[in-house]
């Protein structure tokens, strides 16, 4: 089998109303997705996507005419051009989808996993009033979720704590609550003048301990290794992060310094399935937990679902969900069927070959965006 062509489709899906997330300075009005299609001489096509575009011309230079099963070689090549030209890992996702289809196996089984479903947590994205978040939490619980993640990002951290206090009082011990401060990275022009320093992070962590928070995510900049390690030493709750870090070397530093309890690499950002499985081995050898970041689109969610299902221990899977502004229909608009929770609060892993997803050709045509010739 040989790779004969690489295609991209750039889509823009208009949201019914703006989604005002905590991690970017402007509201999202279109959900933009870069879909990678890798074609072969045997008529099998692999699908990939994620949150990071890269150069199509370079991808063709390295992949055309090659054996898609030569993953080690492809990963080394992608590491090389990722150093200069962004994050090419949706390509690697498409290769694994292709390999799964060629062998008749779902990706998570190729990676050695055996979990056929994973317990989901509702991952919110916006800042809302205490009253609204109480209503949301109770509705999520009724829908089957047994955990949710709140976003903290207000100028005054005490206002964030008021939301947490209200939700904890409302749901009691019936739900685990995670908190994401979203200070691991920044998108210009959001300079985050309220960004937490170490003392603030320690104070907030101690307040969250009293409220039984399951983990505190991204409290400090993602390269503040010493600050994260000191926070973890002083806090009596789990510290989580590393969703946008990449490569074995960055995760090795985190582990050596003792920065996190919960590691969150996203296969579409951190280095594809191959390197993320290596990262997972290191994390598990250090006695820590791994549960991936999944907030990209339906294809990126599927990739991280398969990755999570291949792990020895993954306590929760992130399920991006913040109705009415962020729904499975918007996240997974390019798929024939969106991912949904089952009646027990779990996400089932597709059992079809590869990623086990199918693109909706009508929607691909309907939401096709501008000329995608330069990016994937």
What does this structure look like?
The chain has 376 residues and is of the alpha/beta class. The protein has 2 domains: 109 residues, Enolase-like, N-terminal domain (Enolase-like, domain 1, 2-Layer Sandwich); 239 residues, TIM Barrel (Alpha-Beta Barrel). Strands 4, 5, 6, 7, 8, 9, 10, 11 and 12 form a 9-stranded mixed β-sheet that branches. A 3-stranded antiparallel β-sheet has the order 1-2-3. Strand 5, helix 6 and strand 6 form a beta-alpha-beta unit. Helix 1 packs antiparallel against helix 2 and helix 2 runs antiparallel to helix 3. The C terminus is likely disordered.
Supply the number of structural domains. Answer: 2
CATH architecture identity of the largest domain: Alpha-Beta Barrel
Number of helices: 14
SSE pattern: EEEHHHHEHEHEHEHEHEHHEHEHEH
Mean pLDDT: 94
The level-1 CATH class of the largest domain: Alpha Beta
Give the overall silhouette: globular
Counting helices, strands and paired strands, the structural category is alpha/beta
Instruction: Give the CATH superfamily of the largest domain.
Output: Enolase-like C-terminal domain
From the 3D structure, determine the CATH topology of the largest domain. TIM Barrel
Q: What is the CA-based Rg, rounded?
A: 20 Å
Distance between the termini: 23 Å
Number-wise, the strands total 12
Question: How is this structure best summarized?
Answer:
This protein has 376 residues and is of the alpha/beta class. 39% of the residues lie in helices and 18% in strands. The model is unreliable at 372-376 (pLDDT under 50).
């Amino acid at each position: 089998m040989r790779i004969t062509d690489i295609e991209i489709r750039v889509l823009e899906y208009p949201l019914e109303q703006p989604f005002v997330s905590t991690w970017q300075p402007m509201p999202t009005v279109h959900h933009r997705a870069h879909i990678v299609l890798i074609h072969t001489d045997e008529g099998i096509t692999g699908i990939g996507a994620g949150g990071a575009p890269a150069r199509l011309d370079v991808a063709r230079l390295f992949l055309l005419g090659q054996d898609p099963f030569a993953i080690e070689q492809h990963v080394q090549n992608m590491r090389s051009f990722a150093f200069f030209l962004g994050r090419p890992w949706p390509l690697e996702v498409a290769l694994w989808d292709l390999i799964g289809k060629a062998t008749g196996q779902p990706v998570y089984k190729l990676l050695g996993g055996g979990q056929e479903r994973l317990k989901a947590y509702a991952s919110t994205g916006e800042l809302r009033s205490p009253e609204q978040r109480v209503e949301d939490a109770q509705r999520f619980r009724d829908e089957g979720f047994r955990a949710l993640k709140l976003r903290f990002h207000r100028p005054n951290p005490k206002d964030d704590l008021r939301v947490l206090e209200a939700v904890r009082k409302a749901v009691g011990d019936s739900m685990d609550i995670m908190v994401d401060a979203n200070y691991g990275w920044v998108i210009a022009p959001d300079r985050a003048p309220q960004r937490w320093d170490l003392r603030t992070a320690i104070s907030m962590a101690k307040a969250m301990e009293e409220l039984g928070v399951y983990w505190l995510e991204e409290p400090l900049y993602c390269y503040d290794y010493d600050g994260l390690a000191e926070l973890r030493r002083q806090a009596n709750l789990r510290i989580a992060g590393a969703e946008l870090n990449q490569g074995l070397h960055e995760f090795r530093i985190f582990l050596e310094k003792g920065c996190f309890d919960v590691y969150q690499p996203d296969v579409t950002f951190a280095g594809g399935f191959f390197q993320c499985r290596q990262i997972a081995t290191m994390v598990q050898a250090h006695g820590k937990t791994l549960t991936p970041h999944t907030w990209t689109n339906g294809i990126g969610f599927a990739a991280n679902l398969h990755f999570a299902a291949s792990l020895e221990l993954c306590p929760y899977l992130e399920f991006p969900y913040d109705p009415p502004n962020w729904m499975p229909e918007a996240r997974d608009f390019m798929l024939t069927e969106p991912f949904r929770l089952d009646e027990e609060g779990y996400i089932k892993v597709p059992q079809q070959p590869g990623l086990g997803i199918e693109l909706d050709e009508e929607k691909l045509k309907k939401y096709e965006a501008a000329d995608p010739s330069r990016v994937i």
